[in-house]
Design a protein that fits this description.
Shape: elongated
Radius of gyration: 24 Å
Largest sheet: none
Structural class: mainly alpha
Number of helices: 8
Helix content: over 70%
Distance between the termini: 50 Å
C-alpha cells in the first residue's frame, strides 16, 4: 500500500475521532511539531517519492544549510494553535491534512525539511563520515564480536542437537 493511501486512511480515521468535542488532530500535530519524532521526515520522504513532477512548473526545494529549526518550530506552533482554535468551531485540521496528503504541495516538504534541518544535517554528516572511513578492513573489535557470536551459535546448535538426540533415543 502506498504511503499516500496509508496517510489518507489515517486522516479519515482521525476525522471520525474529530466528531468528539476535542480537536485531537490539532493537539497531535502540535505534539509532533514540538517533539519532532524521527518518523515524520521518513514518512514525508516516502510520501513525496512518487509525486508526479510537472515539467512546466518550477518547484524549488530548499537545502538544509543555514536554517534555524527553532524558528520554523515556533512558526508551525503558531499556525497549528490557530488551526486548533478554528478546529474547536469547525473541523479544519483533518481536511487540510487530507489536502496536503493528496496534493503533496512542495511547500509542505520544505517546511518539514526546515523543521528537521538539524537532524537532517547530522544524518548527512554521519553519512559523509562513514564514506570517508576505510570500511574495507573489518575492525578488530567487530571481528572479535562476530567470533564470539559464532562460538555462541555453535554452542547453541550443539546443545540443540544433543537434546534432539536424547529425545529420539
Amino acid at each position: 500500500m502506498k504511503t499516500q493511501t496509508k496517510c489518507t486512511l489515517t486522516l479519515c480515521t482521525m476525522f471520525i475521532v474529530e466528531i468528539l468535542p476535542i480537536p485531537f488532530t490539532a493537539i497531535y500535530s502540535l505534539y509532533a511539531v514540538r517533539k519532532r519524532p524521527t518518523w515524520i521526515p521518513n514518512t514525508v520522504k516516502n510520501l513525496y517519492a512518487d509525486r508526479p513532477i510537472n515539467p512546466n512548473k518550477i518547484s524549488k526545494e530548499i537545502s538544509i544549510e543555514g536554517h534555524d529549526p527553532m524558528k520554523t518550530r515556533r512558526n508551525c506552533t503558531i499556525a497549528l494553535t490557530t488551526m486548533f482554535l478554528i478546529d474547536v468551531i469547525v473541523p479544519f485540521t483533518v481536511p487540510f491534512g487530507i489536502y496536503i496528503v493528496r496534493r503533496r504541495p512542495i511547500w509542505f516538504k520544505n517546511v518539514v525539511t526546515r523543521l528537521y534541518a538539524d537532524h537532517l544535517q547530522q544524518v548527512v554528516q554521519d553519512d559523509v563520515a562513514v564514506d570517508e572511513e576505510d570500511t574495507t578492513e573489518p575492525s578488530e573489535i567487530l571481528a572479535e564480536i562476530l567470533d564470539q557470536r559464532f562460538r555462541e551459535l555453535e554452542q547453541k546448535n550443539f546443545d540443540f542437537a544433543r537434546t534432539v538426540q536424547r529425545k529420539g533415543a
